Every structure is written in structure tokens, then in C-alpha cells.
């Protein structure tokens, strides 16, 4: 086969590969206006869809500010499913406080096929014109009026004076009463509570984390920081294995070599790698992934909790 034929076959292979990507996932965006005045807001609508049996879709990492524009509100990601196709929608409120022409950039959405090479899809970019408020120069200038002072007398503060006297008298009466009836109390020794089992402690902290609803309030990085701290604390206390200062790869290597934790390697890998994506702003996990990682953490704790054996001694 000559060189021209090889190039043609390579082109066909690339074309059909890109076509299969396009069928598997799509992303798009639109704005409801391209011109605003300073301080006004526009809505950016983002939509994405993918085949859940063929790939995973990671939501784009959306910065709070870009190109002199600012995201003032991030709506929740709405999810719907029709067959194998999962669709997502999110609405952003964007404003600008400087006049000029600014660009809403294209946002990349990583797509991870179940088999194949990961790739990325991008939304469209938009040019936004931010204008100042027009001033009517034909009308005369009106100066700011000076502050008008209002005279006050002691009678304006009469009720404050009476209230202060009453509070002072009450404070003196309460002080004298407790001073007269003060009793010497004998300190009572409070028995020290037994230490909380490590598995119960981890499950309690995970429950408290869920009740904070951090990812629902768009505090996604804080949510994953707390989640991984709880998981690493449990590993240190349960298996006497240093975990707090290790990187994800270092910790997973220790997990793989451990006789008991090695059985949980796949579960821990999903938790830690999903958390890294969120904490380092590589991608924003989707709502079902937020709940999935905390469920996997609970399962890991339940599967590896210490087994307590009660020994009884019989007396003859």
C-alpha cells in the first residue's frame, strides 16, 4: 500500500472515532443576552448528555471569575435519564462591573469511555458587551443636601435611664441572694467514658458530614476534604497505617500490600481518585458521584470494623 493510501485509511479511522465520540456525549451552552449595563446579570445555560453504558462524564470546573466577568450564582445540576442517555442542565448568573467587551470562555467537559481513550468536549464561547449607564447631560446638576441636625433633650432618653436603673437594682438583688445562700459543693468524681470505637467514630463523622449538605451548597472541595480526612483517620486508627500525610498513589500502594485492606482496593481507589478530581479542580463530580463516594466509605468502614470477641471464664 502506498503512502497516499495509508493517509486515507488513517483519515477514515480518525473520522469514525470522532463520530463515535460525538454520538456518545454532547455539550452545549447559550446565553439570554450579549449586552448588559454595569452590574446587570445574564444567564448562561449549560446542557450536557452522554450514554451511561459507554462512558462517564465529568462536569467542567467553573471558576468564580474570568475575563472581568463574575459568576454570582451557580444553579444546581439537574439530572434526567431517558433509556441509557443521561442529560444534565445547569444555569449560571453572570455579571460584570467594568465596561468593555469581555469573553465567556469555552468550558471543557472530560469524557471517560468505559473502554477507550478519554477525551474532552467544549461549550461555545460568547462575547459580552458591558456598557455604562447613560447620563443625561442636558439636565442641571443637583448638589447633595447637607445633614440637618435634630436637637435632643434628656427626656428623649428617659426610658433608657429608667431601664438602666431597674437592671442595676435587679443585678444587686440577685448578687446578694446568691451570696447569702451560697453552699459549699463537694466535687463528685465523674467516671471517665470509655473511648469511642473507631468504626462508630468514623460513621458518626460521616453522618455529620452528610447533615452539613456541603456539596448541595456548592462547597464541593470542602466536602471532599472532610470526607478523605475521615477516611484517612479511620485507616490510621484501625490499621495503625500512616495515611494522613501520604499522597493518593502512596496510600493505594500500601492498601494493595495490606492483607485486609487489599480486598477493598477497588472501593478505596474510586473514593480517593474522585476526591482528587474535585479537590484539585481537575473536574467537578456529578451529584450521584457525591453520594456514591460517601456510601462507599461507609461500606469500607462496615466491612473492616474490628471484630470484638467476648471471652468468659468458668469457675469450678
Quick overview of this protein structure:
This protein has helices at 3-24, 158-180, 198-212, 220-239, 248-257, 265-279, 287-304; strands at 25-31, 35-37, 41-51, 55-57, 65-66, 69-74, 78-82, 85-96, 100-104, 108-113, 119-122, 126-131. By secondary structure, the protein is an alpha+beta fold.
What does this entry look like structurally?
Helices cover 39% and strands 22% of the residues. By secondary structure, the protein is of the alpha+beta class. Strands 1, 3, 5, 6, 7 and 8 form a six-stranded antiparallel sheet that branches. The protein has a three-stranded mixed sheet with strand order 2-12-9, with no helix packed on it. A hairpin with a 2-residue loop joins strand 7 and strand 8. The chain starts with a helix and ends in a 12-residue tail after the last helix.
Amino acid at each position: 500500500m502506498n503512502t497516499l493510501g495509508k493517509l486515507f485509511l488513517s483519515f477514515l479511522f480518525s473520522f469514525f472515532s470522532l463520530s463515535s465520540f460525538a454520538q456518545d456525549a454532547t455539550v452545549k451552552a447559550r446565553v439570554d443576552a450579549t449586552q448588559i449595563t454595569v452590574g446587570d446579570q445574564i444567564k448562561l445555560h449549560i446542557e450536557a448528555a452522554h450514554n451511561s453504558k459507554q462512558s462517564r462524564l465529568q462536569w467542567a470546573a467553573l471558576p468564580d471569575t474570568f475575563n472581568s466577568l463574575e459568576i454570582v450564582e451557580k444553579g444546581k445540576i439537574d439530572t434526567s435519564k431517558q433509556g441509557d442517555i443521561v442529560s444534565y442542565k445547569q444555569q449560571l448568573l453572570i455579571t460584570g462591573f467594568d465596561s468593555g467587551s469581555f469573553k465567556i470562555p469555552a468550558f471543557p467537559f472530560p469524557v471517560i469511555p468505559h473502554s477507550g481513550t478519554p477525551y474532552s468536549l467544549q461549550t461555545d464561547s460568547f462575547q459580552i458587551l458591558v456598557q455604562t449607564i447613560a447620563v443625561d447631560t442636558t439636565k442641571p446638576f443637583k448638589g447633595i443636601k447637607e445633614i440637618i441636625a435634630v436637637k435632643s433633650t434628656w427626656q428623649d432618653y428617659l426610658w433608657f435611664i429608667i431601664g438602666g436603673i431597674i437592671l442595676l437594682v435587679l443585678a444587686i438583688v440577685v448578687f446578694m441572694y446568691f451570696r447569702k445562700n451560697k453552699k459549699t459543693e463537694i466535687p463528685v468524681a465523674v467516671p471517665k467514658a470509655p473511648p469511642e470505637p473507631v468504626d462508630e467514630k468514623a460513621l458518626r463523622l460521616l453522618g455529620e458530614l452528610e447533615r452539613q449538605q456541603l456539596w448541595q451548597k456548592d462547597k464541593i472541595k470542602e466536602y471532599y476534604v472532610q470526607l478523605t480526612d475521615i477516611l484517612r483517620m479511620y485507616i490510621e486508627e484501625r490499621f495503625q497505617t500512616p495515611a494522613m500525610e501520604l499522597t493518593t498513589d502512596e496510600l493505594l500502594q500500601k492498601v494493595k500490600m495490606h492483607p485486609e485492606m487489599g480486598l477493598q482496593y477497588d472501593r478505596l481507589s474510586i473514593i480517593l481518585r474522585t476526591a482528587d478530581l474535585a479537590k484539585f479542580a481537575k473536574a467537578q463530580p456529578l451529584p450521584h458521584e457525591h453520594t456514591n463516594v460517601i456510601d462507599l466509605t461507609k461500606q469500607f468502614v462496615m466491612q473492616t470494623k474490628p471484630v470484638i470477641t467476648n471471652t468468659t471464664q468458668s469457675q469450678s
